[in-house]
Design brief:
By secondary structure, this protein is mostly helical. It folds into two domains: 88 residues, Rna Polymerase Sigma Factor, Chain: A (Orthogonal Bundle); 96 residues, Orthogonal Bundle (Arc Repressor Mutant, subunit A), CATH 1.10.10.10. The protein contains nine helices and no strands. The longest helix is centred in the first third of the chain and has 23 residues. The two termini are 33 Å apart.
């Protein structure tokens, strides 16, 4: 099926979330509620970077859980539950991005999404400082600049970064969730690291943490 992860079958009986999903497979509605409570906030946090708003992220998260419920009869624990779930979330996010691109009107002045994010960073810096000098940003400003910088990444770089940095998935788990090789994941994260450094460099002081630091290989 479309939401299956192409991995060799492995026993994941020690994963409590796998056990919950197996109970869902057996018709346990309370187990499904527990999974939703555990992962709802985490899904919304990731999908917000795709959807652009809390409301849209909520809708996408509900779509993910709906797919999980529909897949219960054919579910096979061939990976950690979180890996399987984020694989579904990646598919939902990719579909949402494609749909949005189809509906999107021609942008003013022909700017791309990446260019728009960078322009927003420039405007934000100008508004807060009156010029473009490097200065220390407060926590809220820094968080907003990081959000805009992450939005400027390509779809796959963004998802790999979110799964690595915010969910703590291993390279192997990210590869399974995104249906890529481990080497491809490392390459995506390396490019994301370089791109973020280039984008955020003019706006933050050297050594000032941004919260998007990616561990080196």
């Amino acid at each position: 099926m479309a939401d299956a992860i192409p991995t060799n079958p492995t026993a994941w009986n020690d994963d409590p979330d796998v056990q919950l999903m197996l109970r869902v497979q057996g018709g346990d509605a309370f187990a499904f509620e527990q999974l939703m409570q555990r992962y709802h906030g985490r899904l919304v946090r990731i999908l917000r970077h795709v959807a652009g708003s809390d409301e849209s992220a909520e809708d996408l998260a509900q779509d993910v859980f709906l797919r999980v419920f529909r897949a219960r009869a054919s579910y096979q624990p061939s990976a950690k539950f979180s890996t399987w779930l984020f694989h579904i979330a990646h598919n939902v996010a990719s579909n949402a991005i494609r749909d949005r691109k189809r509906r999107k009107e021609v942008q003013v002045y022909g700017t791309t999404g990446s260019q728009s994010a960078i322009l927003s960073l420039d405007q934000m810096a100008m508004a807060s400082s009156g010029a473009m000098p490097v200065r220390r940003l407060d926590k809220v400003e820094r968080a907003e600049m990081v959000r805009l910088a992450v939005e400027s990444l390509s779809e796959r770089q963004r998802m790999a970064l979110l799964l690595c940095k915010f969910e703590g998935l291993s390279y192997q788990e990210i590869a399974e969730a995104m249906e890529l090789s481990v080497q491809a994941v490392k390459s995506l994260l390396s490019r994301a690291r370089v791109n973020l450094k280039q984008i955020l460099g003019p706006y933050v002081n050297s050594g000032q943490p941004t919260g998007t630091e990616i561990p080196e290989d």
